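mind reviewing this fold:
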Amino acid sequence: MRLARNLLIGLFGSAWTALLGLLVTPFFLHYLGIEAYGLIGFFITLQAVLSLLDMGLAPTINREVARGRAMNNLQDAGRLLHTLAWVYWIVAVLLGCLILLLAPWIAERWLQVKLLSPETVKQAVMLMGLIGACRWPIGLYTGVLLGAERLDLTTGITMVFSTIGSVGGIAILAWVSPTVSAFFVWQAVVGGVQVLVLRAVAWRTIGREDGIQFDFDRLRKVFRFSAGMSLIALTGVIFTQLDKLVLSKTLDLEGFGHYMLATAIAGSLYMLITPVYNVLYPRLSLLVAAGQTEQLINLYRQGTRAYTLILFSLTMFLAVFSQELVSLWLHNPGIAADVAPIVSVLVIGSGLHGIMFFPFALQLAHGTTRLPLLINSILMIALFPSIIFLSLRYGALGAAWAWLSLHVLYVLLGTWLTHRSLLRGLGWIWFSRDVGISLLVALIFGFSAYSVNRWLPWPDLARMALGTILTWGMMACSWKMLSEPIRAEIYAKLRHQ
């Protein structure tokens, strides 16, 4: 019961945050312009890259809290949290100082600026360092709450502070100062308060003993898993952020802003992906620790079926109606024409990426870091030449195609390697039955909707309404097909053709 409740809460919170981000973006563009918005996009990329300094500690505390719950012993997790908090706060200070030192070089040598003054860009980058330091420990305390399956608290806090940060940011730009520096100062204040609130809630959730001290031995015990997670994060950030890093150097801030707008729409898929993973990972960890293999397989397969039918439906809707979405969102046909093709390619790649969160959660629940590290390393080797060649040759659209190609490889390679080691013999069944039928229905819908949409002389709003109806119809048909008796019958017929 708690699993379903947490999933619904997570989906609601993620949808709220994604919708809020889409609603406020036109206001940011209005007050700041596309170049300054490119700076915001660069900050998002910089945050993702600097997450490498996490050293795998956030997923480690998540797993340890989940294991502590399974064994009815949260005291050890509390002692580990105290130790990790020291590490996090020290890294936060060093992180802020590092960005301050690098700000002049980033402003003058890395970013390609046309309209903004060098001093404005330098101040903005310095403020990025301040925000990064203020927000840095959020991952640690969020990991505690996720491991305790208190997604209600995590979601509520995230929703409140996302709203304050976004709506307050518009108010600052409208009534205080329409500058990117003022915007970043506000985000630093909001981030600092959010960390303090999460810290108090995390300690209250697991309970705090008096007199606990920094314990190097506890840090050493989780070092192997943490180090593995850190290397996974390193390779993961490279193959999810390399496109943005390359484009931030090769494109001017206006062109980079267009790519980040497309990324924002494609990223709306993660309003489904992220909460599903946040619910799934601690529950799989609990089942692995308790040795409940049958329940583990049931959750893994049944969760995949329900998840993919929604994920693929949303993916095709965003891909087919990208032009109409961007046009209605920004009310700027010129930007829409540049951004929409990028959106269509990126969103399909993101949909494929979303499939693999189930195998990834399974790997981490078993404490296996070597396997995701191997997969990420192979993907990284494949990504380097493709992203650099396609980005330099075809710009933002080339980077989007590299993203899509990468995740086609990820689905095929990751499924095979995962099920050679974990839940052996389930790989083909999971891919063909639990993923494949939803994918087939989505592709049929996508091609049909594209053909109809291409020839309809209707306004954008009418096209969107039609697309929404078709998407919900596709979900209903998929749900009917995915019921166990019908799926088994279809699969048996296909197998004997």
